[in-house]
Amino acid sequence: MNNQRLLLISVDAMEDVDVAYARTLPSFARLIDGAARAQIRSIFPTLTYPIHSAQVTGCPPAQSGVFNNVLMQPGIDHPDWFWDYSCLKVPTFLDAAHAEGRSIAVVQWPVTARAPFEVVVPEIGNVEATGGLVETMRAVTSPRGFELFERHRDLIITEPKTNHGPFAAAVGADVLREDQPDVMLIHLVELDSARHLHGPNGPHVNEALDIIDERLGVLLKGLDDSGNADETNIIMVSDHGQLETVQHTNLNILFRDRGFLETDAENNLLSWDVYLHSSGLSGQIFLREGIGEQRRREIEELLEDIVAEPRYRIREILTATEAREVYGLDGPFTWVVESEPGVIVGGALDRRVVVRREDPDFRGYLGNHGHHPTQGDQPVFFATGPAFIPDCDAGRREILDEAPTFAKVLGVSLPTARGRSIDELLIPGLR
Ligand SMILES: [Zn+2]
């Protein structure tokens, strides 16, 4: 253990191509100019919750247990997300630091509900299902986190779309100023939201970067007020890029058409032998428990037909064993579906099997992710502060290397991590 401080900022869906503009903005410039850096390869599927889990555990979904953003709740329109910290099946670098007596704050970080730390204001939605905003936050925050939630809840924007950005920045700034934790994690999502709504590229990207820069300004003001800025390592990361959505291939409709899944006249799910759980630009196929051999063979044949049919634009369907070996992706599913770039592998029950972008009934996000991590633009890693060598570039590194790096900065060990720390970026005494 040492006395290094760490502020980890995740700018959701920030891509390497955003850096040129971002560094013209004052707060981004402070995080980027002179920073130690790496080009990051993410994990499959490129979904926010599995990746943020990888960033704190150093493990892919096969070990972390977070294999999707949302739980497998067949037939539910808005399934619950992997909110709870107990969803993580391996230790995080936060656990390792906390065990050494370091104080921890998490603000809007995925999979941190009910985490056992000093300041916990987790990212959580679907609050209608859990008793409304106030009761939900009371249940998932730490006592100090709830106090800060009450102080700033007026900043949560609900119309036209929920946006926690101003709330997150204000809470984060107060935590840095008042609580002065040894480690703070904060997650900012407005760039991801803009890319979902309008597509991966366009003028909305720089507009969103302008907004994020304001959030960073609020946050860094809190850090400056604390007097800890010079001794704080500030690391800015992102989780994935986005691709242009070109098509939805809704496999559950096909399963229904072939008699493997049943709905009522209102498209409510009645029963299923096989079910597609979407992971955005990829999918996870579940087989009903206790299904017979004959039925399973019929489903395997159907899956072969799906890959063979060019209209569906499905590149490959891997068995769970193959997905574990190739991608470190495992879960309670039986197969993993990889689509062509930009093809949503959808679970909808009320659409046509194939809906293309140019079709009049296309609806949904224009940009998305969940794709294979080699596709599209890549996530960022910039680190400044006393632990890092200025302007040092480690080249291409795995996102699984981030958590061991954070652990090393704090002088704690994380033996369960599958990555290795990015030592090239660290000052000699820390290596
Ligand atoms: Zn994300």
* Portion in beta strands: 15-25%
By DSSP (H or I, 4+ residues per run), the number of helices equals: 14
Q: Compounds present?
A: zinc ion
What is the alpha-carbon Rg in Å? 22 Å
Give the spatial strand order of the biggest sheet.
4-3-5-1-6-18-2-19
| Poorly predicted runs | none
Tell me about the biggest sheet? 8 strands, mixed
Helical content (DSSP H or I, runs of 4+): 25-40%
- Termini separation (Å)? 13 Å
| Structural classification | alpha/beta
- Overall body shape: globular
Could you explain how this protein is built, in words?
With 431 residues, the chain is α/β, with parallel strands linked by helices. The chain has 14 helices and 19 strands. The longest helix has 24 residues, at 203-226. The chain is globular. The mean pLDDT is 96. The structure holds zinc ion (ZN). Zinc ion (ZN) binds at residues 12-13, 48, 192, 239-240. The site of zinc ion has 6 residues, from loops.
Helix/strand layout:
Blueprint: E1 5-11, H1 19-22, H2 26-32, E2 36-41, H3 48-57, H4 61-64, H5 93-99, E3 104-107, E4 119-121, H6 133-140, H7 143-152, H8 165-179, E5 183-188, H9 190-198, H10 203-226, E6 232-237, E7 243-244, E8 247-250, H11 251-257, E9 261-263, E10 269-272, E11 274-278, E12 282-287, H12 293-308, E13 314-319, H13 320-327, E14 335-339, E15 343-346, E16 354-356, E17 367-368, E18 380-384, E19 393-398, H14 402-410
Parallel strand pairs: 1-5, 1-6, 2-19, 3-4, 3-5, 8-15
Antiparallel strand pairs: 2-18, 6-18, 7-17, 8-16, 9-10, 11-12, 12-14, 13-14
Helix pairs in contact: 3-14, 5-14, 7-8, 8-10, 9-10
